[in-house]
Every structure is written in C-alpha cells, then in structure tokens.
Amino acid sequence: MPSLTEYYGRAKYGFGNMNPVDMAQMGEDWMIAAATGVGVGLMSVALGGLDKKVFGFPVPLDGVAAGVLGFAGLQMRGTTGQALKLASVAAAGSAATRTFEKFFKAGFKVKGDFEDLGSMGISGHRWHGDHLLSDVGFGAGAQDALVEAAKYL
C-alpha cells in the first residue's frame, strides 16, 4: 500500500513535468472558448434567444454559428483556422447543452423540491425530523418552516 509520501511525490512529479508550451496553448484555447461564449451571449441578447423557428422547425442559432465557424476554420490555414475550429467546438457545446437540457427537462419532470428527494426513505416514506410520514408524495406533507419561507423569496 503506497504511503502519503509516495502520493505527494507523484503529484509533485506530475505538476513539475507539465510542458509550459502546452500550458500556454491551453490558456489560449480557454480564452478563445470564453470569447466564443461572450459572442454567443451577445447574439442571444440581441436576437431575443438562441432558438428561432425556421419553416416550423426550431433551429439553434448557436448551432448554426458553430457550423459557420467550423466551415470557415477548415478553409483557413494556420492559427486563424485553428482558432475558428476551436470557437466552433465551443459554440457547438453551447448548442448541445441547451438542446439536451430541454430534452432532459421534458423527459424527467420531477414534482417537488430537492429537500423532498433527499428525505425520501427506501420504501417511499419520508422522514420529517424524528417522525416518519407514510404515503407522502413529492411536494406534499408537512415541511420545515424555513423551506416554506424560502419558496416565497
């Protein structure tokens, strides 16, 4: 079994052997992704949202921006092309996040609060303090006064 000193040595070796060129490249990549996020955010504010209906179908505008940036990045050579391809990946990540968030919200509708989910027992009963409340569904039954007050904030 490795000792704490061995784990410390492995961690120190790992941090000490990072390539400074790779670290700088990663920083530049993060800056490009952040700038893309700023652009997508500005586009969302200016257009009133990123989902627009085209011929009755919802079209994610950040997905369209990802395609345009990727196509332009593939046509260009050098660092500009690489930057545009990276920006395309960042915009595609934004579109994918929003699309799957909507999908999961539609598919996993949970009625109630997270407090209710955490206090449910194995058998479907809910604990409230020292009392066991049986046959209680999500969002029903007695709750802590603080939770009730927080709902109205």
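The above is record 1. Record 2 follows with the same two-line structure.
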Amino acid sequence: MRHWFFVFRFRHFGELDMRCPTGGMVLHAWTRKGAVKAAWEMAQKRFPQKPDELLWVVEVRDEDARDQAAMMDRDWERAFSKFHELMTVS
C-alpha cells in the first residue's frame, strides 16, 4: 500500500506553517503505523536539521496534496542522483 507524506521544518517554540512543506515522500508499507515510522526515519536522513529545528511528518490523503508530495519526492530523488553522479569518481 502506498502512503504520501509532507515534511515540515520549524524552529523550537516556533509556529508550524502547514502551507509550505520542506519536502514530500512516497512510501510503500503494509500498515499505516509502519509507513509513519519509515517516513520519520527517511525524513531524518533526507532533511538534516539545525540544532534549533524540528521536523514534522504529516500523512496526506487529498489527491492534490498526494500529487504534490510525489512531485517533491521525485525532485529530491533527481537532485540526489545528480549529486551522487558528481561525487562518484570514475
């Protein structure tokens, strides 16, 4: 089963702005609980935090939000692929 997530970044004691996600992720998991855990772990790896920042992972179910999360996920994958290609020694 596929699950879509938005990742938000905000400062300690700051206000969470739900209008502007930092990134999106699409994950495959059997259960919702497993998907949330996997999303949290992936967000920790993909989006490094400053010492005064927190990440917030939100599952999205609206069709437009799912499309946006998928596009953000593909964008991150493309950027990482380019970075990996640049850093690989031939």
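The mean pLDDT is 92.
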